[in-house]
Amino acid sequence: MADDRTDRPTPPILLLHGVFGRPELLRPWIDRLEAAGYAVHAPTLPGRDPTDDHVLARTGIEDCFAVALDAYDHIGEPAIVMGHSMGGLLTQKIAAVRAPLAAVLLASIPPGVLWPQLRALPYLVPILPRVLAGRPFLPSARTMREVPLNTLPATERAALIPLLVRDSGRVFREMSMGAPATRVDAARVTCPVLCVSAGADRNVAPWLSRRIAARYGAEYRVHPDLPHWIVAESALDEVAGGVLEWLERTVG
């Protein structure tokens, strides 16, 4: 029997970047999803492209959520929501107030407290003053190499670090303390959920990722050797390939 997938319309995707990120850093994902027939909408969260410290200084998670929700509503039809890191938290929040076709969480920040891991603490200490004060910041290249990018090839880490952007200390403070803006009513998330985690993640501990998946009755997948930057181009075939297979099976 002939494969009729090309005759079926694919739903749009809202793709949300994470901390220190911007849509252009998700270009490999955008290209792969569009090649599979999906129309991808990838908004820029406040103050990140171009970098604007005045905007970042007054930006919290609710401000980011407002931008993400507005982008979803402007699509004008039920869509898939997909997010990396903080974008994963925003994906959960959208799924609780709208009716997306599916939600895909990529190394997602949890609702509630983002508990630090002991091995990451030495890298967190230098940024604590800015986080506690809610000031914009960008960690050192060494911190980026050893925490969010830790298991990527050295050449890829070197290429990514100059492209990362400053982020909001207020957002980090809210995530670290489990502020009300991080909370999600799990009972209101009724769409299918895929939770994809990174086994070498030094930002979001594996036990937190498992808890997120259990919270939504999600399908759970772990990539043991990948870091928090699970959206890296070098991991595209491994991670995006599985996501596309799940989307075809779940909403295709």
UniProtKB/TrEMBL annotation:
Molecular function in Gene Ontology: catalytic activity
Q: What Gene3D superfamilies would the database entry show?
A: alpha/beta hydrolase
- What name has this protein been given in UniProt? AB hydrolase-1 domain-containing protein
Q: Where is the AB hydrolase-1 domain?
A: 13-240
Task: List the PANTHER family hit by this protein, alphabetically.
Answer: HYDROLASE ALPHA/BETA FOLD FAMILY, PIMELOYL-[ACYL-CARRIER PROTEIN] METHYL ESTER ESTERASE
